[in-house]
Each structure stands twice: as C-alpha cells, then as structure tokens.
C-alpha cells in the first residue's frame, strides 16, 4: 500500500493547496516580538503516593513537575527535552489540562486555566490539542478514521452532520492521506499513516497550540522525516504554536527555535537554539549533548569526548536536597547540596539554573550565585550579605541579564 | 584477500576462517496469504572481536535473521535454507539438542525490551544463575556467586544485594545491564544485540554502548548490533550491513558506508535524520512512501518504487531486474545492490551537499564529471 505521499500535492481544496508549495520552513527562526500565546508560571504537579491497605493514607508525593515557568510565543515552537521521568510529558498533559495542577498558573491568551472546571475548559479544548506518541494505542480501533477525525466537530457542534464528511476529507488531504480512505479502520494503516491521522484529528478544530508528545519516536527513521516535514508545513500554513516534547536532541534542534531542558521536574536550562546547542552552560545539558551518537564523526574520524553521567535519575519522591542534579554532576560542590540554584538569566534568551554555570571545561571555581542567595561559597548563611529579592522566576525573559563573560549586566 | 570474505581486510590474520559465516540465508514464513520472504539471500562474515552493525527499517528482516542465527525459528513453521556456519559448524544442520547446547554458550542475545525479556516472577540473580547452570554443572551457590561477579562487572552498584531483586525493582538501564550480564556469563563467542539501546535515554544509551565496547574488548567476542540508529552504528561497528526488504542492499566497512554510500536507500537513511550541527533552515529529505510488503515485493529492485534516482538508470532495469550485490567503484570490500552506474558522482553532486555541506567541497571534482 503506497498511497501515502510526501506532500499533499495538486489538490483543489483552497486550504490545503499552499502546503505543497511551502519551500522554507517556519520553525527555524523565532519572530523577535511574537506575543506569548501560552505562559506557564511556577507550575507544580505532585502525585500522591498512597499507602497500601484499607485506609489509604498519603505517604509521599511524586514531585513530577516542580515549579516550571516558560512561555510559548504565537506560531513558534518550544522544545522540551530530558530523560524519561523528568516530567516533560506531565507538563504537556497539564497544559492540555488532562491533569489538574497542584499549584501554579497556566495562562492561555491571558486567561488562567490551571484551576478551570470542565465547563470552562470545553471551549479551550478547541484551542489546545494534543498529538500522542504511540499511533497504535491513541486511535480507537473500533471507529473508522472518518469518525475519529470528525468527532471533535460533532462534540463542539461546529458543523451540521452532513458537512462533517467533506471537512474530514479535506483534513485527510492536508496530512497527505487519500481522502477516500475515511471509512477505513486504523489497523489498515501503517505507523506513519496513523500518526498522520492523529495529526489530522488534532487539527480538526484549528487549534492555536498543539502539544506534541514524542510525535515521531515510535516511527521508523525514514517516516520520521515525513512527519516532521508535515508538522512544519502545518505550522507555516496555519500558524500553530507547538510545545514539542521529545528526547531526541537532534530532532528538537531541527524543529524548535527555543528549547527547555528538564531534569527531575525542573527546568535546568532554557534558551534559544544557539544558546542551548552551541553555548550550553549547565553540566546536564552538556552531558546530554555529548551523549548523542553522531553519524558525522565516522566521516571526520575520531570520537567526541563523552561526559559520562554515573547512575540513574534519582527518585522524584525523594529528590536530592539543593540542586537536584548534584548527585550525578561532575562539578558539584558543597553549596549544591545546601541551596537550590535559581534560574539565572545569562543571555538575551538564555537562562540556566546552576551555581557554577560555564562553558564545557570553563566552569567557575567560586559559585556565582552565593551573593544572590546571601550565603558564602560553601552555602552557609553569610551574615554580611542579604539575599537578593528579585530571584522569583518569571516565565519570559527580562531585558537585563548577567553577562558571564564580561562580569557585567547585559542589556537588550 | 578473498572476494567472498569482505570483512577479511579488517583482520590481522586473513588466513583464518571467520567466526561466523552466513551464506545465502533464507527465512520464509508460509501464511494463508502466501509466502512471506522475511529474509531472502543474506550473506556476510564476522570475525572474532569485530562488530557488525545491521541497519534497516522495521520489517527489513534484521531481527528475523538474527533469530535464525540463534536457532529460534526451530519448532515454528519457518522455512530456513542456506548456511549459518559458526566456528566450523553449520547451525542449520545440527539437531535441536545440539543447538540448545550452543545457545547461550557460544551465541547469546540481548533483546530490545529488557522488561519483557526477563521473567517477572524470578529474581534477577536467579535468571542470570540459571543461564550459567544450564551450561555448567555447578551448585546453586557457585552459580549465584558467578551472577554477582557478572552484575559487578556490568556496573551494577551493590551487586550482592541487587542480585536478589526482581526485574521491576531495576531501572531500564540497569535491566539492560543485567541482560548483558546474562548474555555474557558463559563467555560466548558471538553476542547478538537486537536494538539494545532503543528503549533507553541518550545518557543511559551512552553508558550501555561504552559497556558493550569494554566487554567486547575484554572477552574478545564478535558482536552483531541491530539498530535503526546510524549514530549508534557509527560509534560501534567495524562493518555495516544495510538491509531492505529481506536483502542486504549495501555491505562494507563502517567508515566506507557512512562516508561513501553507493545505494539510494542508504542515502535516504542518512538524509532523513537531522544532526546536531546541521543547518536548521534545511528541510529533512524523507524517503517517500512506505516499506514494501514482503508478501508481494516489488519486481526488480525492491527499493525502486521509493527510489528518487531510478530515472538515471537506462531502460527499465530497476523495475525488471534485481541488481546483484557486487563491488562498486570503491574497491572489493564495499558491495552494493544497485543499477546506478555512477553512484559516487551522484552522491557527491546531489546528496552530500544536502546532508553535509561542509564536506561537499572536497568531492566537487567528482560532481563535475556528471
């Protein structure tokens, strides 16, 4: 069955036609003055751990997401990367409000939806949609593709019943499937085609924000590229913003102009593409980047020096004190166990949460954050210093920052 | 140097027979809809201490051929033919009992998903010790001691305590380490790793790959690593075999294949993955279409319906005739299955500028010949 085409070419549908002619791609550069469509502020999600037995007392909490702040601008993409268990999928599900957050705010177009009830959420579901990781389990096997894609239209009563089918066919064309296949079942399609069905379903209501949770990791390499290109075409065409959750650093770099690196429920480094991939200041980001196997090194010979991280990610039920990465960090010192590093802005679009931020091999010997926290270099309270008051994390970027190279305040 | 043994150039002792020699292996499954030709004429050699990387999409026959080497198709309705010679013995000729004695001892396997490959009711130590006791007549106590040693060797902390844990108490990376301990406990000559790191995070993947390389050096085993990640192959493999629709389409030394690939399918694999230093403005170039059905494979070259270069072949050759796996322009050791007369020039002119513009300059001369 080779009815899958790369680009939905020569259609007569007005909406779909330009997709085939898009040459460049939208995700590469973030517009400078784009308005944030989504603002997440100090978002927390703690899952209770219950004791076994009849009286199920809460005996602990899994701190899956613990104080995460970021912004997603209109028609752009934010990538969320990290190891499994770092809370990236939970963050995605909080934003689509599949979970109700423990604390914090999720502002979508200025409106806080963190604690909204089902009735308030229904209109918002049209604006925020999700693409799931596994195209085999996220489609109902007993429904035809047409009813899967058409369901949102019926639920939100957007179109009368007889108009749904033409719209479904239009959507199938947009995602590069044969519109005549609307009455087939999911099992009749390959993995890549099913993921296209999932994308069509997410697009049905013309959302402004798509949360894509590992949209290509279940697919073969040759099919991954087809789906990534499709997502970029969709972004160019419809101006959809993406929260792109993935563990593949190369794909995130390709797709997202801005990237947040998460570790154990916290953002450890966030910034634009060049800051993260070319100028990483957090030892965890550096270790992640050095662990990616590279095809090109075979061509150039030699092997990049790898930072070996020891052990596994600690349990989020009982995270390490202070900096959560310190148990695996190659440059951790005493202050790291005592104080949690604040997320410091160190560039125009670059924030890092580390006491010793620096390029690989150039980490400072003295903690940069000691003065701000009002402590000495070992992390003991310093009576002579007072903690800085403006350390509360803001979702966006400030106009001034600490320039580490010049030891001065940088300005936009 | 013999032409039938492409990996011989890599060894110091070219006269010795390779450890593993697979010749014209075919694995066919009869089904109600017809014969599924999962593996269709696969030939390769592997020497002691060397690593072969097998790359391909799902359904290209990578796992089926490795299961054939393990003798795991016995007792099923699979039809096997050809030769799998391990240390001078054809594994397809020997009895099930003889194969059972070799399995685990001379050839062992690491599976993709360690959670489903381990038994949830038995402790990790029990399962590792069992693998040892099958082949060695020792007491439980000695076997358990050996299991602790192996867990220590693969880098599990507190092995004497963790040996009594159940698989669910291990993290993904530790389970994969335990699988490796189980695979290596009998010091096998050949280790088959079927997507050993696909289910793991990049940092853990890096740990596991380093561990596999260290152990390979220590035990001098031959390793077959099956993966779809060309980055993993670039780090691990000495030789690379690219499979498509049950056949090898390109085979040669790793560096050769990754720097001068001669088959459009390999080009497609290389150009469809972004890399960490590439140009983000550039679009990914996917391989169009889907992998073919093995029930009813395309005529001629199985890749022709998806191949963007088939117009460059005179006549209708791609559609009518299956190309042979023959050496290309770059010497005897690098074989490919393609009709294109000048793949090097096309690669330099059309593919390399897209996937690695910084390297394209060196081969600009070759492009001018076009």
Can I get a quick summary?
With 412 residues, chain A is α/β, with parallel strands linked by helices. Helix content of chain A is 26%, strand content 21%.
What topology does this entry show?
The complex is a heterodimer of chains A (412) and B (370).
Chain A: E1 36-50, E2 58-73, E3 77-81, H1 88-95, E4 103-108, E5 111-112, H2 118-125, E6 128-131, H3 145-155, H4 161-174, H5 191-203, E7 209-213, H6 221-238, E8 241-245, H7 249-255, E9 258-263, E10 266-272, H8 273-278, H9 283-291, H10 296-300, H11 334-338, E11 344-347, E12 350-352, H12 370-373, E13 400-403, E14 408-411
Parallel strand pairs in A: 3-8, 3-9, 6-7, 7-8
Antiparallel strand pairs in A: 1-2, 1-4, 4-5, 9-10, 10-12, 11-12, 13-14
Chain B: E1 20-31, E2 34-46, E3 51-55, H1 62-70, E4 79-86, E5 89-90, H2 96-102, E6 107-110, H3 114-117, H4 124-135, H5 140-153, H6 159-162, H7 172-184, E7 190-194, H8 202-219, E8 222-227, H9 230-236, E9 239-244, E10 247-253, H10 254-259, H11 264-271, H12 317-320, E11 326-327, E12 335-336, H13 343-355, H14 357-360, H15 364-368
Parallel strand pairs in B: 3-8, 3-9, 6-7, 7-8
Antiparallel strand pairs in B: 1-2, 1-4, 4-5, 9-10, 10-12, 11-12
Second rung of CATH, namely the architecture of one domain in chain A: 3-Layer(aba) Sandwich
Spell the H/E element sequence of chain B.
EEEHEEHEHHHHHEHEHEEHHHEEHHH
Mean pLDDT of chain B: 85
Instruction: Summarize the biggest pleated sheet of chain B.
Output: 8 strands, mixed
Which percent bin holds the helix content of chain B?
Answer: 25-40%
Distance between the amino and carboxyl termini of chain B? 33 Å
Strand order of the largest sheet of chain A: 6-7-8-3-9-10-12-11
Annotation field: number of helices of chain B: 15
Low-confidence stretches of chain A: 1-28
Rg of chain A, alpha carbons: 23 Å
Number of continuous helical runs of chain A:
12
How many strands, which pairing sense, and closed or not: the largest β-sheet of chain A? Answer: 8 strands, mixed
Q: What is the approximate shape of chain A?
A: globular
Tell me the β content of chain A.
Answer: 15-25%
């Amino acid at each position: 069955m080779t009815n899958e085409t790369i680009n939905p070419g020569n259609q007569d549908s007005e909406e779909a036609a330009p997709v085939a002619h898009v040459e460049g791609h939208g995700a590469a550069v973030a517009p400078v003055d784009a308005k944030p469509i989504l603002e997440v502020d100090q978002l927390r999600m703690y899952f209770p751990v219950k004791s076994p037995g009849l009286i199920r007392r809460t005996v602990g909490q899994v701190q899956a997401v613990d104080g995460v702040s970021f912004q997603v601008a209109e028609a752009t993409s934010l990538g969320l990367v990290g190891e499994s268990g770092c809370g990236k999928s939970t963050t995605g599900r909080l934003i689509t409000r599949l979970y109700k957050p423990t604390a914090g705010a999720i502002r979508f177009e200025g409106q806080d939806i963190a604690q909204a009830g089902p009735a308030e959420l229904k209109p918002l579901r049209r604006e925020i949609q999700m693409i799931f990781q596994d195209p085999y389990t996220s489609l109902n096997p007993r429904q035809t593709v047409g009813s899967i894609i058409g369901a949102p239209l019926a639920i939100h009563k957007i179109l009368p019943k007889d108009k749904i089918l033409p719209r479904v066919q239009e959507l199938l064309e947009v995602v590069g499937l044969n519109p005549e296949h609307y009455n087939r079942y999911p099992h009749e399609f390959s993995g890549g085609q099913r993921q296209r069905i999932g994308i069509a379903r997410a697009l049905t209501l013309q959302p402004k924000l798509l949360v894509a949770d590992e949209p290509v990791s279940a697919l073969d390499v040759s099919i991954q590229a087809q789906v990534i290109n499709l997502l970029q075409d969709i972004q160019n065409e419809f101006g959809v913003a993406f929260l792109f959750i993935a563990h593949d650093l190369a794909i995130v770099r390709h797709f997202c102009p801005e990237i947040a690196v998460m570790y154990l429920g916290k953002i450890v480094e966030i910034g634009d593409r060049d800051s993260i991939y070319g100028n990483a200041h957090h030892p965890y980001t550096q270790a992640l980047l050095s662990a990616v196997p590279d095809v090109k090194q075979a061509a150039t010979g030699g092997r990049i020096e790898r930072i070996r991280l020891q052990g596994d990610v600690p349990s989020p039920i009982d995270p390490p004190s202070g900096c959560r990465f310190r148990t695996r960090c190659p440059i951790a010192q005493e202050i790291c166990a005592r104080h949690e590093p604040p997320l410091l802005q160190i560039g125009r679009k670059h924030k890092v949460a580390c006491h010793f931020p620096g390029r690989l091999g150039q980490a400072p010997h003295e903690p940069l954050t000691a003065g701000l926290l009002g402590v000495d270099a070992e992390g003991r309270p310093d009576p002579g210093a007072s903690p800085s008051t403006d350390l509360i994390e803001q979702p966006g970027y400030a106009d001034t920052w600490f320039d580490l190279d010049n030891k001065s305040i940088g300005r936009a | 140097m013999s032409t039938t043994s492409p990996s011989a150039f890599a060894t110091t002792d070219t006269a010795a027979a390779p450890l593993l020699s697979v010749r014209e292996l075919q694995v066919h499954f009869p089904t109600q809809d017809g014969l599924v030709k999962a593996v269709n004429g696969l030939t390769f050699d592997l020497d002691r201490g060397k690593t072969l990387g097998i790359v391909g999409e799902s359904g290209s026959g990578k796992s089926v051929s490795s299961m054939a080497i393990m003798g795991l198709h016995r007792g099923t309705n699979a039809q096997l033919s050809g030769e799998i010679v391990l240390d001078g013995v054809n594994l397809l000729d020997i009895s099930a009992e003889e194969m059972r004695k070799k399995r685990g001892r001379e050839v062992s396997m690491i599976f993709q998903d360690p959670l489903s490959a381990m038994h949830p009711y038995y402790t990790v130590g029990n399962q590792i010790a069992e693998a040892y006791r099958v082949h060695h007549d020792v007491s439980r106590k000695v076997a358990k001691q050996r299991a602790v040693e192996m867990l220590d060797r693969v880098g599990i902390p507190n092995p004497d305590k963790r040996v009594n844990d159940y698989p669910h108490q291990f993290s993904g990376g530790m389970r994969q380490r335990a699988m490796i301990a189980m695979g290596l406990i009998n010091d096998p000559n050949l280790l088959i790793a079927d997507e050993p790191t696909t289910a793991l995070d990049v940092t853990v993947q890096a740990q596991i790959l380093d561990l596999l390389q260290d152990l390979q050096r220590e035990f001098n085993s031959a390793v077959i690593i099956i993966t779809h990640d060309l980055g993993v192959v670039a780090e691990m493999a000495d030789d690379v075999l690219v499979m498509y629709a049950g056949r090898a389409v390109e085979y040669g030394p790793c560096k050769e294949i990754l720097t001068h690939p001669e088959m459009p399918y390999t080009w497609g694999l290389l150009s469809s993955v972004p890399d960490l230093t590439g140009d983000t403005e550039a679009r990914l170039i996917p391989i169009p279409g889907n992998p073919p059905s093995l029930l009813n494979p395309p005529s001629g070259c199985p890749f022709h319906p998806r191949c963007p270069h088939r117009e460059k072949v005179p006549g209708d050759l791609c559609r009518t005739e299956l190309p042979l796996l023959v050496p290309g322009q770059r010497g005897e050791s690098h074989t490919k299955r393609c009709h294109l007369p000048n793949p090097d020039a096309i690669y330099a002119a059309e593919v390399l500028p897209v996937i690695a513009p910084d390297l394209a300059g060196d081969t600009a001369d070759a492009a001018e010949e076009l």
